[in-house]
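User: Show me sequence and structure for the first protein, then do the same for the second.

Assistant: Starting with the first protein.
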Amino acid sequence: MEGKTFTSRYGSDSTQPGTGNLLRVYVGPRECDLKYNDNFYGFELRYWSSLYGYLKCKTKGSSVGFHNVTYIVSSPYGRSMVVADLYHVSYTDEIYMFQTYTAITSISHSVGSKAGGLTLTIYGNHFDERAPYSKLRAYVGDTVCDVKNVTDEYVECIVAADPQYTASKFEGNRGVHFEYWTWTTKGENDLDNILSLNSSNHRYKFKNDR
């Protein structure tokens, strides 16, 4: 990440007063490691007298979802402030800067009954539905697989019956859905009500970019 870091000193690296030290970096609720052993992943100012610099860190934990990123510099600077252009809005209407994903490595079955009822085990890394993250959901094609058990390394779910209609393609969680209303207006004091707009409002249009 790049920004106004004020310093290239970390933790107890500096005893010089007034220079400021970078204390911690957070990705979501967890700290992000700046060092491997005694070596920085990357942390320096643009040039020696600059207030701007960049840093690299390694995320901790197995949590997946939508996260914000901050760092803290010692007094008198404090916690970082984010440029608004870096924010995104998730499909759950959360404001975030950085998204992490789970990784699927294998599944327990490659075939099953059309009547459903099979317990499918999905193996991988970083399965997490602990607060404050969203409840985990699983799908076989575009049909919901009812999740019964979640660990960090696998998910167990009950496969539903084969639907009568099967879509020709399956939408993932990447890409952008554009919903817009060409003749519906909201004033600056009514912005919160944008989330109440739906397809029944005047001149609604939808576009899917993937």
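Switching to the second protein now.
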Amino acid sequence: MRRRVDVLCVQETKWKGQKAKEVEDTGFKLWYTGTTSNKNGVGILVNKSLRDGVVDVKRQGDRMILVKLVVGDLVLNVISAYAPQVGHNESTKRELRKAWRTWIRVQRGKRAKVARTKWWKLKGEASQAFRERVIKEGPWEEGGDANMMWTSMATCLRKVAVEEFGVTKGSRREAKDTWWWNAEVQKVIREKKDCFRFLYLDRSAANMEKYKVAKKAAKRAVSEARGRAYEDLYQHLNTKEGERDIYKMAKFRERKTRDVNKVKCIKDGDDQLLVKDEAIKRRWREYFENLYNGEAESSTIELDDSFDDTSMCFVRRIQESEVKEALMRMKGGRAMGPDADGEIQGAK
């Protein structure tokens, strides 16, 4: 998106279901909820750089959705709501207010900056101005602690660089889909970049014409290579191996529709989300201490100490050669022994 939005709340999506889906060619993932087609519905869009931090999703009918997002050490609750107005009774409005009171958590904190200093401008006249300011404003007095001197100089350098060169907006372009690029495509793309570099240094008519020709050739080569790659892919899907790939692709797409792909955080005894490593380790330690040393109901297993003549007889130890032979007979992904289906059919 042109405005570099990371999180966007949308209303009146008018989609039925409670699902998640990726928005193609944008890098965003959408979580939405709706109970009736072409009516109401809310959703939340999260950018690619933040969507892996989603740890929980809650939905309230087709009027409210909450996405819990972990950014660094902060836990953010993003809520998208669509309040009922005309044609709804007081009970419906009361339910919405109750959900608001349950979900909303006021969390304060500073958002981490990802902007970078434009150090690449350190050349020419800008380099000379930067040097003069550093010499004039820098703490160059000798003596004192070395670490303090280093910290003071580094702070001065960063401050002058930000004021002289500026900072970026903190965004980054999404990676393009280039799995089908071949050597020919890479060659014409490299030529187009070279022409653009010459055009940036000298905006003459000749350089402009060369760049237009190179851009047109690159566009044609990319289109042809992509067409051939997809044609080969379709031919491959018609084979036996391609059928397996279809199932893999279906599983991959289903995995993308899940609300939470990876569990990165746990909750404490008060149902509060833990994001720091030390707090998570401490919670696991408390859990296992209560599990093994707690005052829970006794889990002692009463063993049957009755023995008969059969159980008192000598039992030969299993030999190492027998274990190796059994391992050799094992099939991948299956345990030794008869199948359950075969036993059931035999019983019939």
